Every structure is written in C-alpha cells, then in structure tokens.
C-alpha cells in the first residue's frame, strides 16, 4: 500500500465524520456583504486548521475582513502549492425560496444543502481534510503547502491585491490552486487555466432639464433614450461585433495548444438552451461555443432605463436615461486600456453622454503547457481514472490575476462542486460524492507533489513573454 | 353703435359677473379618468346653457359620459358654426404642488387658478357667455350655432367618433370651431388649421426564460436590450431620419400657402431651449422650427426598460426588455397604414420582437385657404386690432379628425388661453384678460357670420382633393 493509498483508505473510513464536520462548518453564517458572522467564521476556520493539521493558522488583518494564512514546510527541494479559498458566502435572500434554511445544513438525495457549501466552504474544506488525512496517517505532509482563505471574495476582493503584495514573502510558492466553481457540465472534472477579466461602466444621457410632451415638442426636443440607443449602436453592431476602436488591439489569440484543447471540450448547446430558454445563440453566429466564453471580449448591457414604465402609453420625451454595461476581457486585455477605449469612443460619438467608469479586474491566463498542470492532471487521473478536461479560461471573472500577475505564479482552477451547485442562488448544495472526490483529488495532488523535485523558478511557464506569444 | 358694439359694451359691463360665474363653473370637479363629479358637471353645463341662452341643452348618452348638445336656428341662409368643447378635466394630482386647492378657484395676479379652467372650461364658457350676451342684448343670435360639449376628451375621446356618426344630422353645420389650447408663445392670437395624428405601440423583446450571468454566458445568451437597441437603430438613424420603409409615402407636403404662412410664424428657439433646458435642437438639424412640429412625422421612445436598475453593477444578461413608443402623424398619413409599416418593419428586422399596437388617431388638416377662416380672422381683428397668426397644424393631437373627416367640415382651432395656462399640470390657470378677450372674439365671430350669407356646400374648401393637392 502506497502512502497515498493509505491516506485514501483513511478518507473512506472517515467519510461520515467529514460530512458531519462540513455541516458544522457551513452552519456558521459568514455573509460579508451584510457583515454577519464574519468574526466567528474566521475564528472557526482558524481553529479547524490549527487543531488537527499540525499547522498554525494566523488571522491577518486587512482593511476589511481578515485573511487566514497557514503554512507547512518548507521541506527543501519539494514544490510549494498555495491553496486559495474564501470563507465568506453570498447573502441567502430570498429565504422563502429555500427548501431548508440556508444556515441549517440539511442532507437530501446525497447532497448537503446550505448557503456557501459549494461556494466555497466544502471546496477549501476538502483541501483541509486532505491535509488532515495526510497528517493523521503519516504524521507529516509530502510537500509544502500554504493555505490562504479570504473573507471578501463575495464582495469583489477589494483588499486581496494589497494583502498579497504586503505578504509576498509569506506567500512564496511555486503555483496556486483555487478550488471554486464546478465540474464541467458533462460531469467530467476540469482544470481551468484562467478566467476572463471584467470592466463595468455607466452611460448617462441628459437631453433637457425636464421631460417634454411628445406632441408639443416631438421633433424639437432631443430624446435621451434615442441618444443612448444610437450611441450603443455604434459600440456593437447588429451582427454582434464590438466596434469600439482599439478594443481588440490587446487581444492575444489562443495558442495552438489552447486551440486544440478548446476544440476537444464537449459542448451540449441544447442543454444550455433549455436551461436558459433561448433559441438562437448570440451573434455573431459563426463562433465555436467555447471561443465565445474564452477568446472574445463581450459588451453586455446589464440594464437600460429611461422614460415611462407604467401601464398604457404616456406621451413623453424623456430628458434622462442611463445604461449599465459590463465587458468581459480576454487574455492580453487590461481594464485600464479597455476603459480608455470606451471613454474615447463615447466622447467621439456622443460627447453629451456622460461616461462613468466603475470596476475593473484583469483577465488571468496560465500557459496551457505549464509543467505544474501535470501534477493536477495526475491527481485527477489517480482518483477518477481519467484525465480532466483542459479549459484555457473560464467565462466568468475571479481574482486570479492577483496570483498570476502580482505573484507571477501559474494559477489553476480545480473545481470540485457539481455543475448544479446553485451558488449565489437559493438551495445551494454540494453532492457528497463531489465533496469526497475533492478530498481524494487534493490528497492525490499532495502525493504527486511529494514524488517530484522542485523545479527551478526560471521555468518557461513563469516567463511573462510566454503569456503573450500564443 | 353696431349690433356687435352693443354686445361688446354689455360684455364689458358684465366682466366682474362673468369671472364670478366662471369660478362657480370650475368649482365643480369633473375628472373623467377618476369618474369624479361627472354627472353634476354635465347637469351644471346643461343648466347654464338652458337658463340664459334661449336654447334647450340636451344630455345625450354615449357608452361613456354623456355629450351636451344645444342648437340655435336654423335661420335660413345664415351659416352654422359648430362649437366643440369638453367639460371633463385632468386629474389634479399632485395636490401638494397646488398653491390653492384645484377645485377652490382663486384669483391671483389677474388669473383664475383651478383645475380645468384653461383646459377647457373657460374657453367653451367664453362661447356660452358670448351667446348669452347676444341673446340678452338683442333677444336673438345673428347666425346658427350648435354647441357640443363632450365629457371624455381627457381620456382620449373613445366615444366621440361614434357619437358624431350617430348624430350626424343634428350636427349639420358649415364649419367647426374648437377653442382649446393657448395663444402663440409670442402672445399673439393664432388660428390652427389642424393637428398631427398619433399612434402608439410597444416593442417587447424576450431572449430567454430567465436572466443569465454575463460572465458564464456572455457571448452565448442573447441580450433583450441589445435586441431592442439594434431594432430601434433600424427605425430612426442617428441623423434623426425615420428609416421605416413606406412610412413617408402618404405624407402630403405643405402647400405653397401653408409654406408661406409657416415661414411667417415668429420663432423664439431660445425661449423653448431655456424652458426645456436643452442645448442642440433635435436632429435632423436643418429643419425650420415649425416644420418639425407640422410637416414631419416623429418617432419618440417614451420609455425603454430592461435589466438592472439599482445602485452599482449587476453582472446580468437581461432576458426581457420593452420599449414604449409614439409617433406623430402629419397630413395624409393614416394610423392604420403607419401601424402596418411599423409592424412590417419589426417583423422584417427583428422577427423575435413582439410588436403591440396601442392607439391611433388620424391627423387633421383644413385647407389654409378655407373661406370660413376669414370669419375667424375678421373676429380676431375686430377685437385685437391685428390679424391672428396662421398655423397650418398643431404639433399635438386633438380629436379634430372626427369633424374634419367624419363630418367633412372645415375645422379650426381658435385658442383663447394664455400660453402658460399650465394645462395638465398643477396651478392650471387662465388670465382674466384672455378669458374676456375670448368672449369678445366669440361675439365678434357670431357678428361676422351674421353679416354673411351661407355658402353652398360645394365650396372648394370641402373638396377632399383640395387636402391632397398641395
Ligand atoms: Zn461566489
Ligand atoms: Zn387636456
């Protein structure tokens, strides 16, 4: 029996206890947006780590809620993995939509239902339990591990970059693993090498000091909604192409390996269509499914409001209207440059419309041929019997750039949750199978790292040029 | 002293009494939209007409609130004028914005303040008092008069066309005078020969069964707001031209006389700009001011709503959005044809967007060389000392087509109210000077008709071809 086999056998025996302890962990509310239960949750996570892992967890302050940091090692010549998770959860509202209360964890049909169980408590708890199992069975870990949990992920990680800069030395690792999000919709495990970035902004049109009568002034008084309609029409055309000058200049097209990996991803458009209830896919029509989510920036109107909203008609020319928009950025794009392109465009096409920049997060992309990926792939294969899917990027945005850009580390998303975890929604859940599988994959990852020798830092996967070269 | 001079001298003597009686008349609420005071107001108007004019006013039922009809004559060989007004008023809300309660008429600075005093009670009451003055001074009227008051003008006159069709014989007249609206902004009296028509409709986009996350599905799930933005962009371009196929086909350009009259209208764009607080006039930029309100159809977005409306940003792809629109129609256009053009356009450019037609009212236009206009011009000159301005059309919409199209009669708007009457708004008012001047102009109009001999009905101004020939 190998070291890993002994750990996995122990995990199997402990399964019932692990689920019970997970339920205790998620019973504690930790709603960062509402400042509910945060201190207690942070203490609880510290205690869990410090009590049984042989590590000392520290609660480190930020300008917001504290971060938890724990470190094992260093064992010379062994690689160091930085595991990042978050102990805060989304607000549970609407309560009435929950079949069981969000902070009274309940098992139904092989799943644990509770707010935050999928996003992100069961996922980083799986890593904690894998470490505990290694420590219990062998009295030590096979590699170096840094555990880091933040308490503000659900409110946009406003202090994460500062924290990482400040504690750069204590976070010295070889690569980063983030277990958040979910398995591929097909049920297969997946490793994501990055995610899209994000900018958001508002457009405000004011064409008069008050609304006017459409009969008395129709043809004379300009209309704020028409201003926005015509401006927006210059930003993305009816064929779906973003037409803002310069916006695509930074975009790094997929490398040959990213291209090949993407083409190998299973696609079930029909399932997405029936979940979301749309007929035709968004324009442009000639793009492969995953290219839309990985390799092309988007321009989404999140909301547009102006003028009369009630029943029947009201003969009014609206003097004010606003649009809220976001864009998803792909590899190579920076929020600063994109925001400037949009600002310049608005200024050129509708100088009277006010452009209000909101937030920005850079995209992140780890080279798909990063040698550290082999450890993750090996771990998944050891537990699941087959290789994970390889996904160059998520469509959504995570604070990954903090690790990949500020720390310059290869960063991987290794999600454990089921695809229907309902994160950010009522009846959030994790399947017990997925949770247990996450513990096993984490344990196998530590084993794989333990069998290896630390690579030198001048590995090509750390070279920023590699990110750009395609 | 002429017959008219005797009447005008009597009017001067009665001025104080007339204002007091106007205040009694407007004290009675008659809010058609809220079904408040309608019966009492109709009875009151009937009594006023029947008691002192030597006419018998009848209350005639409709499917809604009744119409009041009174007729003097026929005196053979004398022309018959049909005077149309409405005894219903707009809802007075918001009450707190009124300096004196809307149904407690109050005099301040030479004006009577009350809901409905300008729109339309003082204006048709001026005609009633002019008739009363003629009857009191001379024991008879110099011409034939039909008085008609409806009770549903402020809710869109839903039963007016049916009423006019049903009582066609009793409404047999030579021409129609409607005293509603206000003097020209310059303070000069004005005669309007028509008004724009109206259609309203809604556009509803649904691109999915629920909103989706802009990261997880941006580029995949179509966006309902983008659907509307791109559709609307095909309906009117950024230069301000309506680009719906066929929409201008019916438009009758102004005749030479309409052109000349329009060019003679005084324009104070600066005053309009400072009232409404806009900088540049609406596009296209190269149109004369009154052409915009008379000779060009408009397409106004009254409201557009979809997606997130709250503070900050929400990363959502909206699955639904709607726009409420109206169009103002000009001479020659029919609501049915225009509605079909819009429906066809929506179907061609955005077959997934639902087109919901709402209301339609045809435009109305009396030939600017109608011989009946001379009576009105004469009356204004007799009282004011100068000719009125001649305006081919109002920008707004009135139910004038019922008289000009269904009855085929030349129809004129002869407004008495001050330009700042604040109709449909708090602190509605009429200046006592305007009210008294209205009584005098009405008396002078009857005098002018009394001096004339009835024209034959085959007068060219009744010929529908004349409307189209330009
Ligand atoms: Zn989350
Ligand atoms: Zn009105």
Sum up the overall morphology of chain A in one term.
globular
Greatest contact pair? A-B, 75 and 74 residues
Number of DSSP-assigned strands of chain A:
19
CATH uppermost class of the largest domain in chain A: Alpha Beta
Mean pLDDT of chain A: 94
Ligand species: zinc ion
In the CATH hierarchy, the third-tier topology of the largest domain in chain A is known as Aminopeptidase
Distance between the termini of chain A: 43 Å
Biggest sheet record of chain A: 6 strands, mixed
DSSP strand content of chain A: 15-25%
Low-confidence stretches of chain A: 459-470
How would you classify the quaternary structure? Answer: homodimer
Number of helices of chain A: 14
How would you characterize this protein structure?
2 copies of one chain form a homodimer. Chain A has 470 residues and is an alpha+beta fold. The first copy, chain A, has 2 domains: 3-195 and 364-467, Zn peptidases (Aminopeptidase, 3-Layer(aba) Sandwich); 197-264 and 291-361, Alpha-Beta Plaits. Chain A is 35% helix and 19% strand. In chain A, helix 3 (117-138) crosses helix 13 (432-451) and helix 11 packs across helix 13 (432-451). Chain A is globular and about 85 Å long. Chains A and B meet through strand 11, helix 5, helix 6, helix 9 and strand 12 of A and strand 11, helix 5, helix 6, helix 9 and strand 12 of B. Bound molecules: zinc ion (2 copies). One zinc ion binds next to loops of chain B.
């Amino acid at each position: 029996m190998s070291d890993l086999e002994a750990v996995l056998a122990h995990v199997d025996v402990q399964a019932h206890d692990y689920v019970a302890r997970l339920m205790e962990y998620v019973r504690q509310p930790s709603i960062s947006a509402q400042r509910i239960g945060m201190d207690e949750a942070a203490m609880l996570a510290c205690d869990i780590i410090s009590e049984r892992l042989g590590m000392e967890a520290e609660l480190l302050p930020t300008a917001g809620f504290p971060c938890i940091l724990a470190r094992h090692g260093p064992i010379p010549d062994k690689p160091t993995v930085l595991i990042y998770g978050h102990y805060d959860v989304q607000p549970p509202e609407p309560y009435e939509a929950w079949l069981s209360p969000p902070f009274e964890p309940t098992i139904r049909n092989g799943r644990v239902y509770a707010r935050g169980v999928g996003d992100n408590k069961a996922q980083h708890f799986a890593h904690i339990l894998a470490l505990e199992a290694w420590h219990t069975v062998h009295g030590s870990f096979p590699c170096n591990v840094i555990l880091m949990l933040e308490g503000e992920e659900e409110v946009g990680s406003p202090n994460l970059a500062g924290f990482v800069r400040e504690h750069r030395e204590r976070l010295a690792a070889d690569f980063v693993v983030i277990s958040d999000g979910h398995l591929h919709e097909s049920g297969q495990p997946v490793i994501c090498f990055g995610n899209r970035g994000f900018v958001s902004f508002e457009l405000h049109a004011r064409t008069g000091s008050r609304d006017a009568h459409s009969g008395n002034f129709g043809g004379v008084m300009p209309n704020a909604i028409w201003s926005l309609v015509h401006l927006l029409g210059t930003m993305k055309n009816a064929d779906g192409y973003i037409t803002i000058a310069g916006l695509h200049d930074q975009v790094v097209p997929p490398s040959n390996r990213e291209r090949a990996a993407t083409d190998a991803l299973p696609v079930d458009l029909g399932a997405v269509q029936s979940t979301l209830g749309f007929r035709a896919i968004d324009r442009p029509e000639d793009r492969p499914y995953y290219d839309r989510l990985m390799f092309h920036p988007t321009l989404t109107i999140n909301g547009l409001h102006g003028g009369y909203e009630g029943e029947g008609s009201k003969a009014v020319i609206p003097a004010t209207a606003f649009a809220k928009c976001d864009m998803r950025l792909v590899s190579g794009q920076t929020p600063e440059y994109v925001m400037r392109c949009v600002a310049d465009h608005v200024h050129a096409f509708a100088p009277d419309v006010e452009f209000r920049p909101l937030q920005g997060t850079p995209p992140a992309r780890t080279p798909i041929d990063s040698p550290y990926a082999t450890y993750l792939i090996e771990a998944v294969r050891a537990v699941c019997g087959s290789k994970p899917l390889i996904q160059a990027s998520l469509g959504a945005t995570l604070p990954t750039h903090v690790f990949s850009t500020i720390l310059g580390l290869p960063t991987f998303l290794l999600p454990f949750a089921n695809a229907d975890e309902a994160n950010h929604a009522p009846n959030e859940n994790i399947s017990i199978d997925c949770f247990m599988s996450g513990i096993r994959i984490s344990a196998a990852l530590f084993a794989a790292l333990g069998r290896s020798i630390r690579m030198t830092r001048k590995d090509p996967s750390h070279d920023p040029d590699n990110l750009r070269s395609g």
